[in-house]
Amino acid sequence: MNKNHPMSWLAARTRRAPALVGRVVERVVAEPARGAKVAVSDSSPFGDGVDARLRRADAALDRARGSEAEAAEKAVRAREAEDGVQAVREAGAEEVRSARAEADQRADDVAAEAQREADEYVAAKEQRARENADRDVAEVQQSTDARVEQARARADRAREDAEQAVAVAREQMTEARRFAAEAEEAARDAAEAARGRADELARDAEQRAAEAETRAEAVEKQGRELAVVADSGPLELDALTKAELVALARDIGLEVNGNKPKKDLVTAIRRSRP
After folding, report:
1. Element (H, E) at 162
2. Mean pLDDT (the chain, rounded)
3. Three-state SS at 51
4. Which end is more exposed in the chain, N or C (fewer Cβ atoms within 10 Å of the end residue's Cβ)?
């Protein structure tokens, strides 16, 4: 409380209030009464009026002293009330602290309960999610197993087909080996026959070569004879064959191509003659 507050001022002075009040009353009442008594006794030969007034003054002094005691008592009660205010303030502060502690505890309890409920909710959601995930995985696993089983069945059929194909291939390979052996034998026979035929053809070729050589010699001889005839007199070149014309042209020193036409050969021979 502010020190300038009336209650603070009154509480600070309660210890010396009775003496202070007594002195004030004594100065205010007693001294004027005594002065008045002296003055009255000195100025009036009659003392009854003065005594009555003195008695009233004493009665007033007594009342003042009673008021002083009452004031002192009230001052004590005011100080006690001030002390009560401080006690109430301290009690109120304690109640506030207690209320704050209780409120904080309730808040902590609410937060803990909310956290527990949240944890339970999360745990329940997680459990449901895991159950759904397990169900989904089981469905995928079942589908995968079915596809694997189908693939295994296809693989088994493919293996059986391959085994059958291998068996057929083996049979065909055996047959091919047999055919190859037969072909080899036939080839040997054909080679032997070809060798015999080749020898025969070689002999025939040699014979043809001999005949060709003989004919060439005859053509050459005939050419020389034609050349002699050409040198000795006119020659009917148109009556000669192409081969005879070629031989004649070569015999007289002309370089001719056997592919030339007959008339070109005749012209070349005639131009070469003087």
Report:
1. helix 48-232
2. 77
3. helix
4. C
